[in-house]
Amino acid sequence: MEYRPELTTQQILCCSCGTTIxxxxxxxxxxxxxxxxxxTEGIPKHATICFCRNCERYLQPPMLWVxxxxxxxxxxxxxxxxxxxxxxVRLVDAGFIWTEPHSxxxxxxxTIQKEVFTSTILxxxxxxxxxxxxxxxxxxxxxxxxxxxxxxxxxxxxVDHKRTFLYLEQLIIKHSAHKDTINIKECKDGLDxxxxxxxxxxxxxxxxxxxTPLKSKxxxxxxxxxxxxxxxxxxxxxxxxxxxxxxxxxxxxxxxIAKAMGNIxxxxxxxxxxxxxxxxxxxxxxxxxxxxxxxxxxxxxxLASVKxxxxxxxxxxxxxxxxxxxxxxADIQVAKAQDVGRNDTTYFARSHLGxxxxxxxxxxxxxxxxxxxxxxxxxxxxxxxxxxxxxIKKAYPSxxxxxxxxxxxxxxxxxxxxxxxxxxxxxxxxEQDYEMFLRDLEEDPELRSTVNLYKADKPKKENDYAMAxxxxxxxxxxxxxxxxxxELLDNLNKQKRTIQxx
Length: 502
Prior knowledge:
Low-confidence stretches: 1-8, 462-476, 494-502
Oligomer: single chain
């Protein structure tokens, strides 16, 4: 026998190819073992995964659609579940191999182990390629098809502006109350929400009831009936009417409600809207909370809205003493902004704004003396006891004239517009309502704390003050409630400015 000095007691020759190898139970090298045994047998190297382009979700068998980002742990787990023979081996490692995002290919690199002979474990690395096939999910199919919704929520408010729905839209976005809707349609006096399930519609009705006073009415329509199984198919509709009262509206309470609220003065203002109407008498700072049941038992409309506000110039402020939270009662001497320099007509008003107004400021209020209201409850009041002016909120005309762009923006729901395009005057009114809502958010820190504001890429110019700056534009309002950067959220999805609905 020929002596081979390179062989030691720690090395042997492979029984198949004669390669020098360390001793092992099979007396074979790794290459010869792989040639005889393939541990990847039974594991598919090619597979198909379904993807819905509308909602960007992947199909997880049998009928579950899940949202996954490319090269995410969720997508990796979904792909591994598609490989049937993977449970017969031990998975050591798995990862993605980079592919072009538009290639419709997903590649995985897998490392597996398996015992092939007695006390012999073989490890192998291989690739699996998934072809992304486009398939429409059931939810998107219902949206694309006609007459597939099961429940609808119709929200209406009989007012001449859309400030309430602009605020309501931001609350829906903040609390993700729209996630179950299959379509949102914009109508003349409100919005229509469509759902594939009745329970989702009831959830929206409960959400709206918790944030605003309303009355609802349910109805159902029979679509089909199966006489053999005794089952019927219905469509459900929920009609919701919001109270026609908004923040800063002037109210004249009916005698029954005023008496039930502790004999409060009938002429009040609405200083807040929650799940009830909060009213205040500006002469005494007395407040009243009108519940939903109380209002709809004796409904009434606002005497005047913010569109009837008049700008006044503050001449003198004299506090009277009573304080309720941030409101301070004061006697304020004002003059109409349009009359300053023309005549000496002044007005005395008792107001709740004594804590924020100073001589030289501008304030918005209702001109009671020269207004004519068509209201029975107001006509029953004694004219001699009525104030000439009721002040509502402080104004910042000098800040507006600086034409400063906004560094923030709002997100909007993806709504289906009406079939007929709005007329030019209607479009201008809609833009004016939106601008008024943005100013309310700027001037009221308490109001904007309830919504989400996002950082804007470029400052947006204000619509109504696009004129050149005049001599007063250099004046800075020291007490203007500027929106700080820490109040703004990062706009993570800059390409899509609207909230998508499934």
